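User: Last request for today: this protein with beta-D-galactopyranose, please.
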Amino acid sequence: MGKRFLAAFSGAVLALSLAACGGEGAGGGGDTSGEKPSDLTIGVSMPTQTSERWIADGNSVKQKLEAKGYKVDLQYAGDDIPTQSQQVDQMITQGADVLVIAAIDGTALSGQLQAAADAKIPVIAYDRLIRDSPNVNFYVSFDNYKVGVAQATALLVGLGLLNKDGSKGTAKGPFNIELFAGSLDDNNAHFFFDGAMDTLKPFIDDKSLRVKSGQTAIEQVAILRWQQETAQKRMEDLLTSSYNDGSKVQGVLSPYDGLSRGIITALQNAGYGGSGSKMPVVTGQDAEIASVKLINDGVQSSTIFKDTRLLAEQAVIAAEAFLQEKEPQANDTKTYDNGVKVVPSFLLPVQTVYKDDIKSALVDSGYWTAEEVASGQAKG
Ligand code: GAL
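Assistant: Here's the final one, the structure of the complex with beta-D-galactopyranose:
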């Protein structure tokens, strides 16, 4: 916690000084209700292109806004915090009328958001809450606590401790598991981990699950910037330090498909999934195509599907409401306290996908084609 606040504080100071040099002369904002869509620009700031989900998010938001006649300034920040700050500063100075931002570090944009507020530009936090600022006007996301619950439940189902209908399974354990969390500067990582740990705790307490490494605090298991390579390295280290006595890891809680792929690579390199050694139950999130293929091939156990098309649609609905000088409709006004205020939110439901669900959830809905699932590659 202390570290988070310190990070938030230094981030805010840096951002404030950046805003002080770049925030003047904004042309956007103000009353836009009488203007034509073609005279209005929406700035869309996305974290990275290394993960296909953010590419899909950015494209969906852009296409849906352009279809309504708006101009869109879509930028990716290469997971670099100063780059994202600069891009948002520039959107403000170039006259954006609304900002849609998926933050890299949820605490690092206070200065930009102040400049936006000064120029009367509404800010919509996209999937990741922006913290420590009064100037976040709306939040569109999924039910992030439930994502964590769903991930832990999928782990329990995969191990046989629970059945898919939630009833008690026939397996008894004890099972060796390891835990992973996302980037500590991403608000979502905390919601995912809390939801998962609340779900796993009774099974850890009654000893049907054992975290053999003993690493159960989020600070011990978090992966900075959600990087696949870092997750692979941590899994390799865990295998060396905690499983060099002939014991096997049987389940891994992973909060994101990119991390799951790193974890799976480490496990495969150590012989798991080969002859005589079962692949552990590995969870995920985002239904990234490479991971959907791994689920289809029986390598990864599950993912959590969050339909980014619906998220993009909510972002567009919220942006349009602001452009018409209206408040977007929230369906949650309690959960997302960003440290300064509770941000009105629109939260979408999530769906667990096991191998058997790929067709109904992902192919029939047009999210991926059967060919993409078979090849593990997006056609684009
Ligand atoms: C989170 C997001 C997840 C996953 C992760 C890594 O903020 O909610 O769905 O995409 O970032 O990109």
